[in-house]
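Journal club side-thread
Mid-discussion, someone asked how the predicted structure for our own chain would compare to the paper's figures. Pasting it here so we can look after the session.
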Amino acid sequence: MVVAGAVYDRGRLLAARRSAPPEVAGRWELPGGKLEPGESPREALVRELREELGIEAEPDERIPGEWPLGRGFVMQVWTVRVRSGEPRPLEDHDLLRWVTRRDWDSLDWLEQDIPAVREAVRLLPDLPQAADGPGTRGGPHA
């Protein structure tokens, strides 16, 4: 199993551009990775987002569905709230971009990620209300 995070912030979704391996370098994906032995999916996602983005994250709700990735792997996606840190490209990524409902499809996504990304974009929270204050990070209900 592979877990991925739909990291939301102010009505936007975080996309990560792969830098490795060469056959997928330059393509975009939702950040995440494979479960390691003994990990729950949530634990794996927290670890992967720390390694790949340098953030402390809190998985919220699992987006319904599983998406086949090939070689027997399936991907599950969770909405994610950033607890601390600013996302930056670390392991296996060279660029991050925040996308909206209007521009998400302008990126060259990995084909197998597109159905999951469509669902994550569909669930994008609306922009926070002014009363929430600046820098508010929203989950799926923000």
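Post-session note: The longest strand covers residues 56-70.
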